[in-house]
Amino acid sequence: MNISSRLLQLVMVVLMVGGASFLMMQSLPGDASWRIAAGRYGYDALDAAAAASVRAEMGMEASGGLSFLYWLGDILRLELGTSLITGEPVWNEIRHQLGNSLSLAGAALGLSFLIGPPLGLLAGLRAGGLLDRSLLAICSLLRAIPQFLLALVLILLIAVEMGLLPAAGHGEAKHFILPALTLALGLAAVSARLARDAMAAVTQTAFHDFARWKGLSNAQTFWRHGLRHVALPLVTYLGLQFVTLVEGVVVIESIFGWPGIGHALVHAIFSRDVPMVQGTALVLGIGFVVINLLVDLLGRQLDPRGVK
To answer: What digits encode the pLDDT tens for the residues 149-205?
Structure first.
C-alpha cells in the first residue's frame, strides 16, 4: 500500500472516528448541560441556573449537524477545540496524557517481547515437547482471562497480600510494574504462540534441512535462516498489538489510576466532554494508521519480495 492510500485511509479514519464519537455522545440519555455543569462546579453547586448557563455558553441549542460541521472546521485548522470541563485546549490535555500512555504502552510492549517470543521460539524448536504443551496451556489461560480480572488478581496477590508493589499511583518506576505486567501478559500469550507456530513451520522447510545437512549448528541455522522468517509475522503482529493496547489502556489505566489517555477518555465520556472524547478517539485512530504504516515499511525491509 503506497503513501497516498495511507493518507486517504487517514482522512477516512478522521471522518469515521469523529462522526461515530459525536453520534454516540449525542445519543446518550439525559441533558448534557447538567453533567457538564456538575463537572465544572461540583454536585453541591449544581442547579438549573448552572445548567442553563452552560447551555447558553456552549451554544448547545444549535443542531447536532451544525455542531459537527463546526468540529470539522476546527480539524481543518488543526484544532481540537476546548475541553468543556477544564477550559483547557484539548491538544494540551491530550499531549500530557498521551505521554503517560505511551510510556506505559512502551513498557508493556518491551516486557511482552521479553516474555513471549523467546518462549515461543524455544517451544517451536521442540514442537510437541513439554515446554510446547505447557506454553499452550498457559497462553490459553491468559487469553481467556479478561484484562480487568487479571489486573484485579495481580493487585490482590502482589499488592494486597504480599505488599510488594503499590496497587495504584504514578510517578515512580514501581508504579509501572503492575499495569505494564497486566498488559504484557495478554500480549505475550499471543506473540508466544505466533513465534512458536512460525518457528515450527521453519524447522519443516527444505532450506532449514539443507542448512543442517551442510553442517551448520543449531545456533547457526537459527540465527542465519530461522529468525529472519519468524520476524516478519511477529512484526506484522506488532500492528495488531496496538489495537489490543488501545483496548487495554482504557481499562487498565482506570483500574490502576494511571493518568493516561484511556483514563481521560473514560472521564470525558462520563462528563459529556464531547471535544475531549472526539479528540482522544481521533488521536488513537490516527496512531493506529501510523503504526500500521510503520509496520508495512518495516515488513518490506524484512521481506522485500514483491516490492516494485
So the answer is: 898 999 999 988 888 888 887 778 888 889 999 988 988 888 888 888 888 888 888
How far apart are the C-alpha atoms of 250 and 39, rounded to whole Å? 20
Pairwise CA distance, residues 203 & 125, whole Å: 7
Please provide residue 306's backbone torsions phi and psi, each rounded to the nearest 5 degrees. Answer: 85, -5
Q: What is d(CA 196, CA 225) in angstroms, rounded to the nearest whole number?
A: 15
* Lookup result for grid cell 516494485: 308
In angstroms, the CA 200 to CA 162 distance is 39
For 121-149, give one letter per residue: b (16+ CB within 10 A) or e.
bbbbbebeeebbeebeeebeebeeeebee
- Whether 234 and 163 have beta carbons less than 8 Å apart is answered as no
Separation CA 104–CA 117 (nearest Å): 20
123-130 long-range Cβ contacts below 8 angstroms, 24+ apart: 123/192, 123/196, 123/199, 124/195, 124/196, 124/197, 124/198, 124/199, 124/200, 124/202, 124/203, 124/230, 125/199, 125/203, 125/218, 125/222, 127/196, 127/200, 127/203
- 79, burial (CB in 10 Å: exposed 0-12, middle 13-18, buried 19+): middle
Contact 118, 191 (CB under 8 A): no
Q: Which set of grid coordinates corresponds to residue 198? A: 512460525
pTM of the predicted model as reported, rounded to 2 decimal places: 0.70
